[in-house]
Amino acid sequence: MSGGGLAIIASILGIFAFILVEVWPLLSGAGITPVRETAIPGPPMHAIIADEHRTHVVGLGMDGVARAVRLADGEVIAEKTMLPAPVEKTSGEPPTLVEIHNPSGSQLLTASTTDGRVLVAPVEWDVSFDGQARKVDPRLLEPIILQVDEAGRPIHTFTARTDKGGTTTAAAQLQDGSLVALRREVRENPFTGEVTETISRSSSEVPFTLRELVLDGEQRSLYGAANRGELLWWRLDDGDLGAWQLASAGPAGVTALTFLIGEQALVVGQSNGLVSVWFPVRQEDGKRRLTRVRDLPPHYSGLRMLYPSMRDRSFLALDSGGEIRLYHSTSKRVLWSGQAPISDATALFFSPKADAAYLAGRDRLVELAVTNAHPEVTLGTLFGKVWYEGYSKPEYVWQSSGSGDDFEPKLSLTPLLVGTLKGTLYSLILAIPLAICGAMYASQFMHPAYRNVVKPAVEIMAALPSVVLGFLAGLWLAPRLERFFPALLLMAAVLPMLVLLAGALWSRFTRTLPGRISLGGEAVAFVGVLAAGMWLCLQLSPAFEGWAFGGSFPTWLLDRTELTYDQRNAIVVGLAMGFAVIPIIFSVSEDAFSSVPLNLISGSLALGATRWQTVTRVVLPSASPGIFSAIMIGFGRAVGETMIVLMATGNTPILDWSPFNGFRTLSANIAVEIPEAPQFGTLYRVLFLAALLLFLITFVVNTAAEIVRQRLRRRYGQL
């Protein structure tokens, strides 16, 4: 016995230790470490791009030459001049570059020239294998050249993007203050091979001097930032600049601007060190407005450069004091901070796999290894409201997967905790009174011959597989309950009255005809009364629904309360899971009632108490420790139930206590998500955290139950 008990304790501790080991890495922080330094030939690079395998870097300097550098030895393996030939309107002097950018999250090098043109140079990476060795070759494609300023004046503030479909858009503020958007579309006839090129131009007057411009990859939204913290947003409809929308980031000038992955959220860095995140939010009037969603911990000096991760909502920020920080937007925290290894950095890049960053200086390039396993996991994101992109306000959301690579996992456990408690509550509302009252009647009032049949039958109910109950609840009970829900409401009112009426009649009948009815026959009679009452309620359901709810309960519910009636809802789960919990509570409670000493019962009856008084005032208090244990065991059974809630609910992780919609529990969520969760990924470990929560809930509840049970035993043990 002792060995078996110790083995059980050791097994439970082993399970707890295993879960804790899987969850512990969620607490690990990020790290950035310099791993390689490479000398850069030629002038400083003002924009750099690296491949995902961390083998090469392509950079563009003010001399207009793009160079591909092999990181292993610093050798330049490819060069290409990006400077265009002079246009006829100029004096014939070759143009030079004014500004150089690498649009966030792209493999593009863009630049503006002194003669009013914008260059867009795509970079591609050819990956091949020689046996087991991977070979990466950079390809510097011909730049796309757009004449943005027809007057041929230098362009200082610009942005440009291109896609594989042949559409290129450039936007720039000209020296006269106007904003110009130029779109070039190239289409090839699939039958004739004929290539057509169309160029559209639009302009808008802007009363601000813009310092930053960014354009999203779909070339539909253009954002600008001005000297005094103004933020402007244009919608590019077919390349035309529409009316701009204005917002203010504060009096300090905006010095850095970038998109996060997905290009819905905008990171704004200012000259006073403030860092904020903005994105369009739908208002009550249906329009979307650029909104300041969150502020991140500020820098001590002004921001110089921002660059986002291409894997999550993390981004790098470099300030004028040389401090570099790794932020995560959603969790609103600094994951890592430290002094940059290059004080005069001219370019910053975050590798495609987000496992490295690159800083370019005047004559060298430093590669930084980045470890950032679980940046989105904090107590706030797991249990608090979070304002996600595309939402109108902060909410509790569980949504672990999406359709695109830019999807942000939403891993709030609060809806799952509420769903777990919701399913448990509705099932116990049904199970506790039926099971305890049934156990009381079976042990104290029922004839032994009937009890010897009823108790084993109820205990056999506990052996029914929960998957069978879930199947029946989801496919048989749910549609019928939707059809006859008014009958359920009738039963709640009619059945108690029928039971009271039948009891009164039975009492009068047995006094009139004493000795002619066998003991225990009342149980059969009451079962018949309940069956007849249920049948009557089902027959009256259509008429009652038409009279009380205008013919349709779901429609009435939506019109009067704005609540929707889902076919698979908490009531279905309460009925099905209550059916599964009743045998456990009944069996333990019946044993508790039966364990009350007969001398207590006999003494109470001998002193003149009725059978009911004896049961309620002597037997029930004496059995209360066991009854409480039965309830706690039933609670643990309901909390950990998986298949019934998985099959009988809509399995939607929503936070709502309404009994007319579905929910998702922690256990069902683990069953659904764990087969698809990448091993050791964030979702994988958060699911283990959900298991740890279930473990702790049952541990705390059982511990509290044992304490209460011991106190009840001491209190009523002297009866």
Question: What are the defining features of this structure?
Answer:
719 residues; alpha+beta; MetI-like fold; 2 domains; five-stranded antiparallel β-sheet; 29% strand
Topology:
Layout: H1 2-23, E1 31-39, E2 45-50, E3 56-61, E4 65-70, E5 76-81, E6 97-101, E7 108-113, E8 117-130, E9 133-140, E10 144-147, E11 157-162, E12 167-173, E13 178-188, E14 195-205, E15 210-215, E16 221-226, E17 230-237, E18 240-241, E19 245-248, E20 254-259, E21 266-270, E22 275-282, E23 288-296, E24 303-308, E25 314-319, E26 323-328, E27 333-339, E28 347-350, E29 356-360, E30 364-371, H2 379-383, E31 398-399, E32 410-411, H3 414-444, H4 448-461, H5 466-483, H6 485-512, H7 521-549, H8 553-561, H9 570-594, H10 598-606, H11 611-640, H12 643-648, H13 666-673, H14 682-716
Antiparallel strand pairs: 1-30, 2-3, 3-4, 4-5, 6-7, 7-8, 8-9, 8-10, 11-12, 12-13, 13-14, 15-16, 16-17, 17-18, 17-19, 20-21, 21-22, 22-23, 24-25, 25-26, 26-27, 28-29, 29-30, 31-32
Written overview of the protein:
- The chain is an alpha+beta fold and 719 residues long.
- It has 2 domains: 30-411, Methylamine Dehydrogenase, Chain H (7 Propeller); 414-716, MetI-like (MetI-like fold, Orthogonal Bundle), CATH 1.10.3720.
- Helix 9 (570-594) packs across helix 11 (611-640) and helix 11 runs antiparallel to helix 14 (682-716).
- The longest helix is centred in the C-terminal third of the chain and has 35 residues, at 682-716.
- It is elongated.
- The relative contact order is 0.08.
